[in-house]
């Protein structure tokens, strides 16, 4: 987790204080359930809630852990300092550390997913607004980096919206994947604890009981979660790459917003670097790099080994914090992205109508010219444009062999941009409903 | 794609003949739609179906492609050889190659997903059957490879069932991700083709129209698809690893089925190697290795570049063929896996009751012994077991300090395996309903 | 392995016939060594060489393997068909299959490395030739896709040369990593075979004896090999990306060679797509995807498990064939890359001198103007260029506040391109010696 | 970077204070070189060294950066606060931020590599000592987790030594890869700074001048560096996995050292978990996960984009800190690993001589028995061992058909462990020289 690529809300989820708070809640809810089952006295269960408003002292717990060498025991010892050892003695009864740790991890991941969903909503809102704004802003579509046919900037935003919207749905599914808890004991048999405790704790913590666990919650869930974040990160890179291309000196169809006060820009006004989108490209790699270790974590020996743990200590916070930051950076970027419609037109016209050559070719054929002749006619005029810098439409209108087949109106019509944008509304309806 | 790790059904999906058949269907359905729109004559559309029962000549198409250097044109030329160039002239009108290629890829991936779902169903059926069979077959649960508490072999199968069942649901979602088609033209604007054509073709091919495409269908869909296969592969490795552990000489709780006639086994009867599950471990890596390039494929320049194509030519067939093979190998393995319940008991009793020490400790404490004293009592008897090979229960029954607190019945009860299996039915109900 | 991305020489290394030939040589050399040690009769060793010129019948071996279910035994049986069972009976004595298989794999990888080195040499030669050709061809250097300061096309080629040359040295080291053989028996103790046999076979096959093996050659060697190929692939992508950028419509500083006859180009002369470099981008991903499974292959259980094998069956041929093809595609691309020096100048001058603003700023400061004043002077003239399309040098020369500090000659000197290229020879000497 | 998986020495390399110290040294040495070239006054260069013993105030630099939004400028401003703005004005002249940042990164990586080499030396020393100690400690070799032939624990340590020694040599090469510096200006042309400055600074900082750079040092170097760390991490996992297997309850041939005072062990003496090696398995994944983003970082647009930067901010420290910690954890583990030779013998004898069946088979054949008969004889005795728990040697000696061919001495000789260990010295000489 790199401070400069972090937002406080997501960081907070992964702070020790948050973790201890979740541990406390799990233990307290478990006591409630056990009391209800008659396994422990109701009074002791009630007493645990005395610590309801306590902010646990992380330094003190660390101090105890330095002695006990066991994090959960250290916490329980500290808890006893708040509620008294007599009342604390039934806390954690029949449970194993993993019951608390794994359920806590999933609470944290679930909360992280909620924040990520907020981030995606902000990105979606921005994309939608900009799509509407530039629905009819014509620009050249490019395949292989080469001019192809006209499209609109609104369609570009709209397709990113559709992609992010798929990402959002994937994230909802991924959140569901890891929204489970387990209080099932040393090897998952509930030998020492009733399944009812698990049910109560999960309900209280906003989770579903894991149908079958071992000492741990199965890690295919987490693999799916991180794989999904990796896909979303790749979509961020996709958008970032489009902006980076649009901002390059020779294209300049858009620029990342550059505040008036930002130093150094005015003496070299062309030197506004798309550093936010380049950064997003790197952040996407950082998010993606958690996918492989998460997949490798799925295989555990028998009822558990602890190889997954160090991996999750790293990728749990790092990946969610980075993606959260990236989503908000992306949203801000889109919200303020400066679009240059005139440059779009200038770029499209760079080859003075040549992008329309396919339409002319088709028109000639449809009007009865043989494919070979049509090709020859288009080619000879195209070459004048390409080699001598002439205007394609003008050349066609001056070519008697062409005008013998197509009228001036018919030729002019081929250069009508409306031809290319006539289905934009249809597509928008598909995307935005 | 390695022949020995391939099943014919999946291989067939990726054969050139299949591809050309799908191309043909897309073109023919597109003609139908265009005829209905009045864009091309009905008669020509009808004529295309004359080739309905043709098996296209792959070698001939290759021959043409060697000249035209363009695969779709080569196919269309060959199609014309079947239906006549006059009737063929409207085929593909207004479409671009990617319309055909991308829609075809998704048809293939969708069919591949269907085969994979069949494979998962077979795995699930095998796991369920074996879970039921061994619901009450007690074995020791292990954390960190070390004996922990008893569980049952049925629970092991059941948790793999639950994991594969999650995998199945993920695969259904992944199939939906790539079950889209696009007939939207050079940059996705439908400039030269009506959206109705796309709708008709997709409906006929069992796909949904891509709401917004560029020249290509967006690759976040494919990334999600391959990421999902990677998670499923990891679950296969998880199961395979369990079997590999069970079969190792010192454990021998299970063995891959070894047919009577298989050579070399009888002179070294202990030397039956778990080669199928080791192989599955390797195959899982092969499936997973498609995840990163699929994620890298998401970013395309503007309305498309072709960097994704070579990647998909490889991972499309390789990954689905390998996973398909792995699923059926896994299913066969589970179906015939030889289980050794007696060895399970022998292994569990290797430490003569020591795995029950925790229960005894708890019982002493609950009976009023201080934590320190209880620990001392358990420890001194445990040490006799560990160091002198005594039996734990016998030692406890002979320790007057212990019997002063716990009766013989109470001590014996702590060694009752039923304590550990009492919730197996509950868990089975959760998993199998 | 995808036929269209394959070269026959590399494919041949991985063909069954080649494999059997290597098996034969290993067995024959082993017999020689055993005869010399007196372990088997010399006559029998000599007899094995009777098959020296035999082309083994792959179909026949497959036929036998279908019965024996063991590839090495099938081969030995077939060998006996050639040299007679009497003479064949000492072949393979004291060896295990892995001795043959692992040594063969490394022979194949070593040969593959040699072919790859040839490919890199071709790439290096091409890069060097083009670097020399365009040593002084000025173009604008870009950071973040934005014009920065002038550089030359020769420097671009030279840095790719230096990168590929590092790659070559890495590949030499990687080749050495896998140029080992092992004939050490079931668990690597030489219990049934003398180490002298290993030494002789390795010497004959161009390998070094593995200092210590188990049943297999340690897989960290192969991991390092494939990791190195992954780095080289990334360098290919780096070069490919530069070309893709150079070819995009708005930049057009270079184009992949497009033969006169290639169809479709003349009607849309701007539509020459950089498909080779886009393809190289995808191929780089395919090569890289072997890195992770190769790393995962390092961990084997005890003296070997066979999880690595299926992975290597795939990535051994696929990765080397793909990289080999990519290197030659890259070399051909560079050799024929069409460079447009005039477009380079036009692009550089797009902002009429603004890229020189930093030098002017510095000159003003050095001439005594305060930093603030210098900035203000540069800025006001830069803005005229940016907003009104004026020429920077002209504006500066017309600004009396500027000319009060800098003479016309001093100002003009700031626009001298020689300033930026004065160390090109120094850099070339560093790179090319 | 996770505190619990960190060693202070490696963490220190990546602290802001260290970074600023390196920046300072680079700037000061650059001033020296520029003074020598006559570009700046010697007095100013000398003055920079006034800050030689200053510990830069990180908080103060952060404060300035909050205003300037530029880290290098913030540092230079702070430096001026120490040496006076008059003397500071020539600092950084003609340089770009990347000159400082990239050279600094490589200084840090080089130092990190040195620490890692120390860690590897400690691992190597531990492996060598344990190899010598257990050179002749016989244990069963296992392929596929199944008993094969005897080997020794010393050979196990020796092969890990050889693997780590290869890793060390790879790391030396990787260190050399990133031990370069660059002071070459905005696009690498030395337009504003003499190459002599680069040479001087690099020599002083222990680096080699990068032969050709752009704005940045090429990232194939860093890719190779991180790929190498990934291979070493995989070797750590390989060793860790061996220990995890050895410690599992049914095998128990070794245990991670467990201090007397460590709580909870005595009541369940069998429950000593191999948590260090499981942790190493996870840490290996964390180290490896940097490989893919490092490979993706190689491709930069034109003379640089900044997408690599965020990746390196994370993997630079995280990967080196984690690997450093893992190496020392591994070394400590090996140093203190508790080996159980008696258990090794017990395990080997679990099948009462069956592992020798291959030798008996061979002896019978060599004594003239037909292969079929020999097989039948071995098989019928092996089956008694396997099914009835008899001793293999005893059965053979009691089988008159066997003793008709082999004398008692010849039979007994086949069970001599010395047969399997006779080449241990040869192998040790190869490994340890």
From TrEMBL, chains A, B, C, D:
EC nos: 4.3.2.2
Instruction: Write down the chemical reaction(s) this protein catalyses.
Output: (2S)-2-[5-amino-1-(5-phospho-beta-D-ribosyl)imidazole-4-carboxamido]succinate = 5-amino-1-(5-phospho-beta-D-ribosyl)imidazole-4-carboxamide + fumarate; N(6)-(1,2-dicarboxyethyl)-AMP = fumarate + AMP
One Pfam family from the record: Lyase_1
List the molecular function annotations (GO) for this entry.
Answer: lyase activity
For this protein, the record's CDD domains field holds: Adenylsuccinate_lyase_1
Asked if the record carries the keyword Lyase, the reply is yes
Q: In which pathway does it act?
A: Purine metabolism; AMP biosynthesis via de novo pathway; AMP from IMP: step 2/2; Purine metabolism; IMP biosynthesis via de novo pathway; 5-amino-1-(5-phospho-D-ribosyl)imidazole-4-carboxamide from 5-amino-1-(5-phospho-D-ribosyl)imidazole-4-carboxylate: step 2/2
Q: Which UniProt keywords apply?
A: Lyase, Purine biosynthesis
- The residue ranges of the Adenylosuccinate lyase C-terminal domain are 352-432
Q: Which InterPro entries match?
A: AdenyloSucc_lyase_C (IPR019468), Fumarase/histidase_N (IPR024083), Fumarate_lyase_CS (IPR020557), Fumarate_lyase_fam (IPR000362), Fumarate_lyase_N (IPR022761), L-Aspartase-like (IPR008948), Pur_lyase (IPR004769)
UniProt enzyme class:
lyase
Query: Which regions span the lipid bilayer?
Result: none
Tell me the SMART domains matching this sequence: ADSL_C
Q: Which SUPFAM superfamilies match?
A: L-aspartase-like
What family does this belong to? Belongs to the lyase 1 family. Adenylosuccinate lyase subfamily.
| UniProt-recorded name of the protein | Adenylosuccinate lyase
- The species is Loktanella gaetbuli
Classification of source organism: Bacteria, Pseudomonadati, Pseudomonadota, Alphaproteobacteria, Rhodobacterales
């Amino acid at each position: 987790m790199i401070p400069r690529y972090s937002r406080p809300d997501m960081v907070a989820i992964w702070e020790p204080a948050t973790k201890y708070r979740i541990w406390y809640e799990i233990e307290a809810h478990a006591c409630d359930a056990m009391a209800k089952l008659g396994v422990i006295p109701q009074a002791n269960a009630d007493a645990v809630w005395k610590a309801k408003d306590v902010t646990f002292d992380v330094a003190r717990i660390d101090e105890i852990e330095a002695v006990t060498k066991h994090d959960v025991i250290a916490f329980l010892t500290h808890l006893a300092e708040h509620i008294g050892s007599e009342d604390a003695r039934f806390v954690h009864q029949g449970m194993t550390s993993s019951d608390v740790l794994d359920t806590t991890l999933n609470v944290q991941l679930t909360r992280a997913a909620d924040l990520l969903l907020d981030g995606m909503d902000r990105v979606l809102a921005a994309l939608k607004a900009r799509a509407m704004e530039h629905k009819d802003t014509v620009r050249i579509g490019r395949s292989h980096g080469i001019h192809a046919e006209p499209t609109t900037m609104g369609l570009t935003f709209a397709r990113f919206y559709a992609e992010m919207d798929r990402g959002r749905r994937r994230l909802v599914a991924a959140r569901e994947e890891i929204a489970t808890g387990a209080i099932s004991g040393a090897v998952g048999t509930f030998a020492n604890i009733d399944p009812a405790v698990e049910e109560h704790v999960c309900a209280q913590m906003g989770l579903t009981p894991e149908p079958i666990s071992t000492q741990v919650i199965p890690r295919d869930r987490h693999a799916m979660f991180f794989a999904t974040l990796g896909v979303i990160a790749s979509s961020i890179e996709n958008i970032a790459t489009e902006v980076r291309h649009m901002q390059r000196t020779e294209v300049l169809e858009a620029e990342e917003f550059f505040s008036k006060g930002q130093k150094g820009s005015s003496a070299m006004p062309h030197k506004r670097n798309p550093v936010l989108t380049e950064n997003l490209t790197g952040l996407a790699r950082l998010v993606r790099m958690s996918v492989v270790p998460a997949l490798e974590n799925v295989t555990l020996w028998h009822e558990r080994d602890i190889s997954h743990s160090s991996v999750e200590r790293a990728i749990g916070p790092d990946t969610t914090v980075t993606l959260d930051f990236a989503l908000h950076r992306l949203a801000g970027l889109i919200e303020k992205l400066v679009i240059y419609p005139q440059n779009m037109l200038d770029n499209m016209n760079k080859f003075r109508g040549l992008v329309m050559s396919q339409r002319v070719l088709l028109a000639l054929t449809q009007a009865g010219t043989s494919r070979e002749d049509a090709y020859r006619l288009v080619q000879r005029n195209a070459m004048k444009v390409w080699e001598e810098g002439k205007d394609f439409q003008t050349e066609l209108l001056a070519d008697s062999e062409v005008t013998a087949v197509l009228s001036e109106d018919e030729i002019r019509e081929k250069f009508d941009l409306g031809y290319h944008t006539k289905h934009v509304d249809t597509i928008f309806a598909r995307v935005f409903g």
